[in-house]
Amino acid sequence: MRRVRVIVRGDVQGVGYRYTMRMVAQEAGVAGWVRNRRDGSVEAEVEGTPTQVDDVLAWMAEGPPGSRVDATEVTERAPTGDRGFEVRRDA
């Protein structure tokens, strides 16, 4: 299993990024969470097989229609065994 923490920068708030990501994550079969940050970025943790995580990371680099992703910062984390994927309250 692989778990990553991702910070997404650009025009990613107010465009449905978190809710679309939840759908993408559920379809990919990954666990984790996503939330907005006060600085205008989106933060997420994603856990699954390396292929599942790579698929979600590829989507995150593009985002939903109406968004603009300028950069993604990916940090490897220790897997936690989470189940399900949730949209969390803003940080």
Automatic annotation (TrEMBL):
Listed InterPro entries: Acylphosphatase (IPR020456), Acylphosphatase-like_dom (IPR001792), Acylphosphatase-like_dom_sf (IPR036046), Acylphosphatase_CS (IPR017968)
Any GO molecular function: acylphosphatase activity
EC number, as in UniProt: 3.6.1.7
Disordered: region residues: 63-91
Keyword Transferase on entry: no
Protein name in UniProt: acylphosphatase
Domain Acylphosphatase-like: 3-89
Lineage: Bacteria, Bacillati, Actinomycetota, Actinomycetes, Micrococcales
Catalytic EC class: hydrolase
Family: Belongs to the acylphosphatase family.
Organism: Microbacterium saccharophilum
Active-site residues, Swiss-Prot/TrEMBL: 18, 36
PROSITE patterns: ACYLPHOSPHATASE_2, ACYLPHOSPHATASE_3
Pfam families from the UniProt entry: Acylphosphatase
Known catalytic reactions: an acyl phosphate + H2O = a carboxylate + phosphate + H(+)
This protein's record includes keyword Hydrolase: yes
Keywords attached to this entry: Hydrolase
Compositionally biased region (Basic and acidic residues): 70-91
